[in-house]
């Protein structure tokens, strides 16, 4: 039973509360402040928590932001895309693929030579437009050169009767080529990346 002379403290103990009851107006004001604080900020105002004798809960650790991983298609295009693009440029400028795909055996040398000259000129212009090349060894071909120790096997290929260790003395048979600058256009989207030359349909 409740003691009428000391009803509020006994009621608080019966409800398990460690604070005295507050007026209705104050409860409404606090409830509204707590409602909007939780809705907007996710926690009860500290001033109310202190007055009610509540210990604010420790803030939950914030998980580190995870960078979204790019999709494979956006991360890096396949290496063959650029190779196909270079073939497409040589086909567009000089019809090089058509020339290689055609059987030239039936043609006489004079007619074949004229076709080669045209293909050569057009493809050379395409290379000069999109790729800047320089010789790996700038000496004249068929002249003596020396391969020094520690040479890069990817840039110099030693052929013939190779014996012993560098330095090696030999004849320059081919100067080699190195690409110093590449200015290819942007890759097309979708299936266009695999197209060397589109089919052509003429409508009568």
What features would you describe in this structure?
By secondary structure, this protein is mainly alpha-helical. Among the domains are: about 35 residues, no CATH class; about 100 residues, no CATH class. Helices cover about 40% and strands about 10% of the residues. The chain contains 7 helices and 4 strands. Strands 1-4 form a two-stranded antiparallel sheet. Strands 2-3 form a two-stranded antiparallel sheet. The longest helix has 22 residues. It is elongated and about 110 Å long. It starts with 6 loop residues before the first helix and ends in a 22-residue tail after the last strand. The N terminus is likely disordered.
Overview features:
single chain; mainly alpha; two-stranded antiparallel sheet; 7 helices; 4 strands; about 10% strand
Distance between the termini: 106 Å
Order of helices and strands: HHHHHHHEEEE
Radius of gyration: 41 Å
Number of strands: 4
Return the structural class. Answer: mainly alpha
pLDDT < 50 runs, ≥5 residues: 1-20, 56-60
Share in helix: 25-40%
Mean pLDDT: 77
Please report the number of helical segments: 7
């Amino acid at each position: 039973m409740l003691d009428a002379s000391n009803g509020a403290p006994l009621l608080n103990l019966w409800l398990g509360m460690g604070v005295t009851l507050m007026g209705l107006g104050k409860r409404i004001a606090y409830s509204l402040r707590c409602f909007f604080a939780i809705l907007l900020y996710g926690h009860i105002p500290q001033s109310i928590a202190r007055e009610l004798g509540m210990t604010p809960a420790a803030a939950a650790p914030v998980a580190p932001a995870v960078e979204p991983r790019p999709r494979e298609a956006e991360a890096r295009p396949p290496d063959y895309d650029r190779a196909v693009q270079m073939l497409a440029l040589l086909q567009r400028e000089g019809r090089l693929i058509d020339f290689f795909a055609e059987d030239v055996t039936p043609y006489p040398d004079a007619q074949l030579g004229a076709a080669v000259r045209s293909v050569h000129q057009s493809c050379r212009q395409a290379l000069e437009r999109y790729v800047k090349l320089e010789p790996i060894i700038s000496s004249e071909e068929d002249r003596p050169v020396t391969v020094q120790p520690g040479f890069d096997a990817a840039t110099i290929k030693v052929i013939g009767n190779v014996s012993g260790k560098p330095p090696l003395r030999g004849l320059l048979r081919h100067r080699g080529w190195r690409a110093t600058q590449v200015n290819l256009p942007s890759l097309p989207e979708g299936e266009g990346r695999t197209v060397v030359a589109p089919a052509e349909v003429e409508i009568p």
